Amino acid sequence: MSGAKGEVKVETKMVPSICSYCGTGCGVLYQVSGNEILATWPMDSHPVNQGKICVKGWNLHHVANSFMRLKDPLVRLNGSFKRATWKKAIEYTAQRFMETRDKYGPDSVGVLVSAKVTNEENYLAQKMARAIIGTNNVDHCARL
Asked: pTM of whole model > 0.70?
């Protein structure tokens, strides 16, 4: 849209979502303009947080828009990090897990899970560790 004196107006909209800072699952509204999150607001009617949100959730848009945030996965090749596609990064990681397991045994691998992801994602990580790699070395640190 064009505004006065040739200015371009960019529409902002409110997008309902779930806060991605931790695994609690608070309902939030993101104020979005183009590809940028301008602000984060708690969702009043959400059963988890009922209109409240922690300070980390309030400021999530700063993290999401940070110039330091990785946009693509990286893999270490010959001592330095190289950009990769998600498919290649996942294949590379799976291959390294299996090489380590096969060379040193399943208990040489440990999996650390996070409070910053959902319970379902943590469940899948421990399931992968136990059922595929064959280790019970799974730990979680909720001290954020």
From this structure: no
